[in-house]
DNA sequence: ATCGTCAACCAGCAGT
DNA sequence: ACTGCTGGTTGACGAT
């Protein structure tokens, strides 16, 4: 018999016997003695982890007819059975009739159904019967979950006592609650990533448009400059050579000069730099645009830095543009980056190259 | 009848 | 060996 099989058999036996013996005993004991039942209706803390002390509105729910105790008993019970985080000098205690409260409907019914059952075996698991927890039980568990989503053994027993549940039920509820929380968190993160991608995509499209405009302007400027020179050097025999050199430079700029950028002569670079300065105010690249300041950024993301977006143009995606994109998408999973089809394998898996079409961006819509 | 929710369960893994 | 966790599944139950 393997270890796993032994484990499974043991666990099945435990469940068939009504769960862990000590847990069951604790529950039954609590039920036998808990003529007084208490729960707390707590305002849900604004944020998980916020302590539920001072100022929480607290309601003690008492079974009116069977309550043999004074307010002193109530206080004693509460202090003995509450976690420190639920205690507070500012907490208000209200004694109310709970006959109508949903929290006790199930208990009451069970008790009535088992009036002759002196050992209080009203909670053992009945195969095929599932009872929903009452709204009050769920609310109490939710409050505790927000304080701490893990469940220590003592706390589990404590909660089970206070809620009239089996500790195993409490444990299962916390497990399921964690699973639900994780699912929601994943959905939320996906939404944030999607929004982030949309912004990057929009910026990229705008950059492409800006790039095209710059190219056109450079072309038009290149037409003007040679004509001026021609006028000044009409008889200059080197004119042809100058124009030839100039044309090479222009082509290098427009068609991709990353190979030897330093050879670009100053006049052309100045023109481009002036254009950069004018374009720096573009809303496309404005680091103060709303998507950087909406205050709703997930911790998953760092603000995109578009400050490099108007470096001297390279028609192909060169190193600068790769840097821009890699900075803007620092946390994209590697598989997404490598989705681009390469003619040749990339030398570095973290550098990537965009094809002329922006098919790279299809990974969200695929 | 169908669908969504949720308590309960199972299998596998990890820590003690 | 024991315990608790995660991920996945099952089945009861309520809403439509």
Automatic annotation (TrEMBL):
The keyword DNA-binding applies. InterPro entries: HD, HDZip_class_I_plant, Homeobox_CS, Homeodomain-like_sf, HTH_motif, Leu_zip_homeo. SUPFAM superfamilies: Homeodomain-like. Residues 110-121 have a biased composition (Acidic residues). It is found in: Nucleus. Pfam families: HALZ (PF02183), Homeodomain (PF00046). Gene3D superfamilies: Homeodomain-like. Residues 197-224 form a coiled coil. One of its GO terms (cellular component) is nucleus. Its main location: nucleus. Keywords: Coiled coil, DNA-binding, Homeobox, Nucleus, Transcription, Transcription regulation. GO terms for molecular function: DNA-binding transcription factor activity, RNA polymerase II-specific; transcription cis-regulatory region binding. One of its GO terms (biological process) is positive regulation of DNA-templated transcription. Residues 308-317 have a biased composition (Basic and acidic residues). It comes from the Eukaryota. The keyword Cytoplasm does not apply. Residues 124-184 form the Homeobox domain. Residues 109-128, 279-321 are annotated as: Disordered. Residues 126-185 bind DNA. Transcription factor. Belongs to the HD-ZIP homeobox family. Class I subfamily. This is Homeobox-leucine zipper protein.
